[in-house]
Write a structure and sequence with these properties.
2 copies of one chain form a homodimer. The first copy, chain A, contains 12 helices and 12 strands. Chain A is α/β, with parallel strands linked by helices. In chain A, 52% of the residues are buried. At the A-B interface, helix 4, helix 5, strand 2, helix 10 and helix 11 of A face helix 4, helix 5, strand 2, helix 10 and helix 11 of B. The structure holds a DNA duplex.
Chain lengths: 344, 344
DNA sequence: ACGCGCGATGTTGACGTCAACATCGACGGC
DNA sequence: GCCGTCGATGTTGACGTCAACATCGCGCGT
C-alpha cells in the first residue's frame, strides 16, 4: 500500500471533482452538499452523499482555508504540561474553541532557553492559525525579546499589564487576599508565604497581594520563601519552615508546593492544622485528598479558558483589542488544613 | 482597524506577490528565499528578506499544504486532560511531533456520550491533518461504533489488541506484575487490588496481570474494588478497605486513587506502611511527596509519546501498519509506602 | 572569438474549493 | 400562449505556493 501513485506524487484523497464525476453532477453541486446548502434537490443530494461515502471523500481543509481566507484554528503556545494550572486552562481553551468552531493548534516550547521560545514563535508564524493564545509565563516572553508576526491576533493568559495584547487571568490579587485574610481571621498573628518563582507574574501578584493584606491589617511581614511550583521545591522550603516554631500559618502559592510543605511538616512532627495552618492555590482535584485535605483558593479555569477564546475570536473578527485586562474571580475552599492559631 | 478591506473581503496578510513586487523580483525567488534554497544570490536574498520583514510576510500554510498535498500536522483526540497519564502522554506526543516537524491538532471530545465521540471524529475528518493519534480509552470507541474516515492513518495509545490500527502503550502486564511481586516479596500473604474503571482496557490488563501473578505464586485472590481513576473514588474504596483488618497490601491502579486510599487509611488510623503497604501506578511528580511518599510503577510516557508519533509518521509516509503492538516497559520506584508485612 | 555550461532568475500551471455569475426549465398570472 | 420568476444546476476564475520548465547572462576552455 504505497503512499505515492505511479507518477511518484503523494497520493491524495478523492476531491470534489471525483465525487462529482461519480455522482454525475458538477463540482459546485458537491460543494453545496458538503456545505449543507439547502438549494439542492433531495434526490441529487442523496446521490452525491452516496458518492461521497463510496469514495471516502473528506473536504480538503487546506483548499477551503485558502479559498476562504481563514483557518478556523487558533494556536496555543504552552511551555509544559507539568503544571496543573496550564493543563487545566488548556483543557478549557480547547473546549471553548471547539464549541466556537475553532480547531486547536498546540505549539509546545521545547525548553526554557530563549532560542527555544524564539523557535516556537517562528514556527507559529508558519502555522495555519488565525490567532494565538499564549499560555507561557510572560516573563519568558520578555527575556526572549520576541516579536510575534505582525497582524496576528494574540491573547495572553497571564497577570501582567506589560503587554500590548489583551490579557485574561485569574484575579491573583483577590485570591491571595482571600487566603491571607482567611488565616488572619482564624487568629494567626501573621501569615508566612511560600511563593512561586520570581520570574512569574502570577507568583509576583500573589506575593504582593499577600504582603499588602498583611500591611493593611497592621501585621508583620515575614520573609518570603520562593519555590518553583513543584512539590519538591515546596518540600525543600517546607523543611526550613517546619523547624521554625514561629510559623503557625502559611499561604502557599500553589497546591503542588503545598503538598511538599505538608510532607515536610509531617516529617518534623508538626500537626496540621493543630500547629500550622496551610492554604494552597489552584484547587486541583487531588487537593481534597491530601493529608489533611487542603484548604485552598479555587481558580476558575473554565472561565479563564472561555474568556480568552472569546477575546481572541473577537479580535480575529473585528480587529478589536486593548481591552482592560480581564480578571476572573477565585474563591476560597475551606477544608481541614486550616484551623485556629495554637495557644502559646 | 477593520478586518475587511473596502471590497468587504476578509483582509489577508501580504502574499508572495506583494513581497516580490516590493523587492523587485519574481514570486518564485521569494519562494526560494522563504524555503531556504541555496540558489539565490546573497544580495537578492537580503533584499527579499528586508521586504518580508517590512511587510510582515508570513507564508500561507493553507496554500502550501494545498500545493504540497500534506499538512505536516497530526491530530490528537483526547477525552479530557484531567487524568495525569493522558496529559503526560499528550505532552510527550507534542514534543516528539514538534521535533519531527509536525504540528499538533488537538481535538477534544466534549463529553462521554456516543454522539460527542462521533462528533469529534467527524470534526476530525475535516481537520487539516495527515494522521491521527487516539488518546481516549478504546472502549469508548467501541461503544460509539465509529468508523474513522477511510485512508486516514491512525495510531491508538491503549492496551487493546482489538483494533485495526497500530497500538502503542505502557506494558501494563509487566508493570502490574512488578507491583504485585514487590508486595509479595515483602512477605504479604496476598495483595488486594483497587482497579480502574471496568471500561478501560488498561485497567483490565492491570487487574488481570495482578490476578495472574497471585495465582502464579499460589496465593488467594481477594475481591477487586473498582474506582474511576479519581482520588475521590480511591478514597471511597479506601474507606471499605481500611476497615478490613485482613488487608495488609494494596496495589492501586493509579496514583490518584492511591492518594485517596492513603487518606482513608489515615482517617481510620491505619499506619502506612506499618499496617498496610500501598503501591500505585503512573508515578506522577506529586507521588514522591504524598504522605507517606508513594511506592509506584513509573510509566515511561516520553517513550510512549515518541513511539506513537514515530509509528504514525511511518504509516503516513509508507502506508505501513499492522505492526505488533508496541509495549513500553514500566519500572518500580520504591518509596516509603511499602514495607514488610505486619506480624499477626 | 565562439559556444558551452552553469548559476540566477522568471513564467506557467495545478493543487481543491467556493462565490459570483450564467443557464435552463417549469410553472403561474394575465 | 407569452413572459416573468424562481429553483436547480453548471461554468469560471481566484485564493497563494512551488515544481517544472524556460530564459538569460557571464565566465571559461579551446
Amino acid at each position: 500500500m504505497p503512499a505515492e501513485d505511479s507518477a511518484g506524487r503523494r497520493r491524495r484523497g478523492p476531491s470534489m471533482a471525483d465525487v462529482a464525476r461519480l455522482a454525475g453532477v458538477s463540482g459546485q453541486t458537491v460543494s453545496r452538499v458538503a456545505n449543507d446548502r439547502n438549494n439542492v434537490d433531495a434526490v441529487t443530494r442523496d446521490r452525491v452523499q452516496a458518492a461521497m461515502r463510496q469514495l471516502g471523500y473528506r473536504p480538503n481543509s487546506a483548499a477551503r482555508a485558502l479559498r476562504n481566507g481563514e483557518y478556523r484554528s487558533i494556536g496555543v503556545i504552552v511551555f509544559e504540561l507539568h503544571s496543573f494550572g496550564t493543563t487545566r486552562t488548556l483543557d478549557a481553551i480547547a473546549t471553548a474553541a471547539t464549541i466556537s468552531g475553532y480547531a486547536i493548534n498546540l505549539v509546545p516550547v521545547l525548553d526554557v532557553t530563549q532560542s527555544a521560545v524564539t523557535n516556537a514563535f517562528s514556527r507559529l508564524g508558519e502555522q495555519a492559525v488565525d490567532g494565538v493564545i499564549i499560555l507561557i509565563e510572560a516573563h519568558t516572553l520578555d527575556e526572549a525579546g520576541v516579536r510575534l508576526p505582525h497582524g496576528l491576533p494574540v491573547v495572553v493568559v497571564d497577570s501582567s499589564a506589560h503587554y500590548d495584547y489583551p490579557i485574561v487571568d485569574t484575579d491573583q490579587r483577590q485570591g491571595a487576599r482571600l487566603a491571607t485574610e482567611h488565616l488572619l481571621g482564624l487568629g494567626h498573628a501573621t501569615v508566612w508565604h511560600l511563593g512561586g518563582p520570581p520570574t512569574s507574574f502570577a507568583a509576583d501578584r500573589r506575593r504582593r497581594s499577600w504582603e499588602a493584606t498583611l500591611l493593611d491589617h497592621g501585621r508583620e511581614v515575614p520573609p518570603v520563601l520562593d519555590g518553583d511550583w513543584t512539590a519538591t521545591s515546596g518540600y525543600e522550603a517546607g523543611r526550613r519552615l517546619a523547624t521554625n516554631a514561629e510559623v503557625t500559618a502559611v499561604f502557599v502559592a500553589n497546591d503542588q508546593m503545598a503538598l511538599g510543605l505538608l510532607r515536610a511538616l509531617h516529617e518534623h512532627g508538626r500537626d496540621v492544622p493543630g500547629d500550622v495552618s496551610v492554604v494552597g492555590f489552584d484547587d486541583m482535584e487531588e487537593s481534597a485528598h491530601f493529608w489533611p485535605p487542603l484548604t485552598t483558593i479555587r481558580q476558575n479555569f473554565v472561565d479563564v479558558g472561555r474568556l480568552s477564546v472569546d477575546a481572541l475570536i473577537r479580535e480575529i473578527h473585528a480587529g478589536e483589542h486593548h481591552h482592560e485586562p480581564v480578571a476572573v474571580a477565585a474563591k476560597l475552599v475551606h477544608r481541614s488544613s486550616t484551623g485556629p492559631a495554637p495557644h502559646r
